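Hey, can you fold this one?
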Amino acid sequence: MNAVSPRPNRADRVGFLLGIGAYATWGVLPIYFKLVRAIPPVTIVAQRLVWSFVVLIVLVSLTRGWAAIRAALANRRTLAILAVTSGLIAINWLLYVYAVNNGHILAGSLGYYLNPIANILLGRFLLKEHLSRLQWAAVAIAGAGIAVLAAGALGQLWISLLLCASFASYGFIRKVIGTDALSGLAIETTILLPFALGWLLLTHVPGAPLLAPTASVSVLLLFSGVLTTAPLLMFTVAARRLRYSTIGMLQFIAPTTQFLLAVFLYDEPFTRAHAIAFAAIWTALILYVTALAGAARRERLASAPDDAMMR
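Sure. Predicted structure:
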């Protein structure tokens, strides 16, 4: 009998919708940070850490995840690595809030567009993975776009590169140690919590409002924990239910949304250097997606004879 292509099941559809939800939430985060821009970036990140800690404690308790956390804490190597990743995610969060509230959403968008290219390079040089010609071409074209941006908009390039490097390194290290998303984030947040509380206590002015100058901003800060953990949990479920190639394509929702917000809602300058750089990055990403689709197709063809024999 001929092999029949499997139809998407309910788990696939749920995973796809959760993946869209996660990346769409990350994509519109600039709107949230703009609403609380009266607060300094360091204080926003500190508040985000405090309220994320509260939400994570509740989630770990509801999901009975304390055993996984105790196991991670008992392993010195895992704990040391999570200390490193907590620093990386703190740098990423702080820099992104700074970029958004200082009119550099485009630079942030470019940084996250570059992330798949960084993943390719990490896989090649640290995991010794083989790169196809399409992947090498994507890296070369992305490099050309960065070079153009360096010549025409050097003042913002450091934001893009540091956002890309911090997030790609964070994702790579978390993948290597294998700690689940909820336990890992709970431990990272706990590591950073004393610094966040220390900053809030140090900068608080006696007699000033505890959270923010206005009630509306205070309420928004209270929701920062949910905005941090909800998309991460949606992404975790989606990653378990979908193909890696599908996740690879969904990840472009967030920087694309940020790009559109920067240009059409917040009127950030879009120069010729930006146009050339983004065109190069988008071309590189088309090659990246093509390479992913080709690898997935070859995998299906390779497994088709075995599926047919089983039927």
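Residues 272-310 form the longest helix (39 residues). Let me know if you want another pass with a different chain boundary.
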